[in-house]
Amino acid sequence: MSNNYSKQREIILEVIKNTRIHPTIEEIYEMVTKVDCKISKSTVYRNVKILAENDTIKKITMQEGPDRFDYIHFPHHHAVCEICGKVFDFEYNFETKKMSKSIKKQTGVISNMDCITINGICENCKSKK
Amino acid sequence: MSNNYSKQREIILEVIKNTRIHPTIEEIYEMVTKVDCKISKSTVYRNVKILAENDTIKKITMQEGPDRFDYIHFPHHHAVCEICGKVFDFEYNFETKKMSKSIKKQTGVISNMDCITINGICENCKSKK
DNA sequence: CTCAAATTAGGAATTATTCCTAATTTATAT
DNA sequence: ATATAAATTAGGAATAATTCCTAATTTGAG
After folding, report:
1. Cα dihedral across residues B53, A27, A21, A23: positive or negative
2. What pLDDT digit, counting tens, does each position of A20-77 carry?
3. B89 contacts B77 by C-beta, under 8 angstroms
4. Topology classification of domain B2-70
5. N or C: which terminus of chain B has fewer CB atoms within 10 Å of its end residue's CB?
6. Chain D, protein-covered positions (CB within 7 A)
7. How long is the CA B6 to C1' D7 vector, in angstroms?
8. CATH number listed for the domain at residues B77-128
9. Among B53, B72, B35, B27, which residue's Cα sits nearest to residue B8?
């Protein structure tokens, strides 16, 4: 296995693995520089891109602001609160599969539903209103 | 009703209404300048944003590249081909509602499923492979 | 060990978008 | 109609997010 052979790439992956905050590149960069202060931002960008293409991590494209990333501990989707921006995980299930079938029928697009992100309002923000 | 009172805003809305290509700002800008060559790009940005906040048009956040926009002829979602980037419309239906309920149960996030975009592979690109 | 390939840091360049300002247009109240 | 206030505009500067470039360094294979 010839992946992950640079020290920097290992640090970046470890950092993403060990957080639950669905970090942006900026946040990943801040975390990795605490481990090794000389890692450059372009190295973070490059390796995060490689890891996302690998399906080691998942890119979460946000409606507003920079992309976020998440280590794939298990296959899952994301629900983003439109008010506070917090990201919640939810699992693949029967409903996901049914919807995938319905989309294929309507549009011809075949999807494993890998990149769905749902926008809505979380419980906390709803109760504040 | 005090919306749409500038000439520029009317042109921008008309252009978006009369295309099916789910245009980017750049593409909207090119189309509006064919009607009135003096409209500036910042005017396009500003008005497109207003129209999206109005729910007159819908912003489609792409996995790659700039946002795209679509006039809301009827409520619908989008399926994006990961290979050619083409955007397909699909309707709200039973499956969408079921999935929304499932997400609420799992995450607490309440969504009207307004901003789902599904990524996959379209028929045309699939047959080429 | 040696050498080719991959990776790095750091910054320049690019892309997408927002912000700023003075001038113009539009709406409102006489 | 006319004055005045509010909104909008063009155009460019500024910002944010990301990619690209290059010479130096590190890594892995023979």
Report:
1. positive
2. 999 999 999 999 999 988 999 999 999 999 999 988 999 999 989 999 999 999 889 9
3. yes
4. Arc Repressor Mutant, subunit A (1.10.10)
5. N
6. 8-13, 16-21, 26-29
7. 9
8. 3.30.1490.190
9. B35
Q: Between B7-17 and B25-35, two packed helices, what is the crossing angle to 10 degrees?
A: 120
Helix B41-53 vs helix B25-35: crossing angle, to nearest 10: 110
Strand D proximal to A102 Cβ, under 7 A: no
Give the integer Cα–Cα distance in Å for A12 and A28: 7
**Backbone φ and ψ of B81, nearest 5°:** -75, 125
Q: How do the domains of chain B map onto residue ranges?
A: 2-70, 77-128
Query: Contact at 8 Å (CB) between B21 and B60?
Result: no
A99: number of Cβ within 10 Å: 27
The pLDDT of residue B3 is 47
Q: What is the pTM of this model?
A: 0.90
User: Is 60 exceeded by the pLDDT of residue A117?
Assistant: yes
Rounded Cα gap, residues B103 and A119, in angstroms: 11
Percent of chain B with pLDDT over 70: 96
Whether B98 sits inside 8 A of A95 (CB atoms) is yes
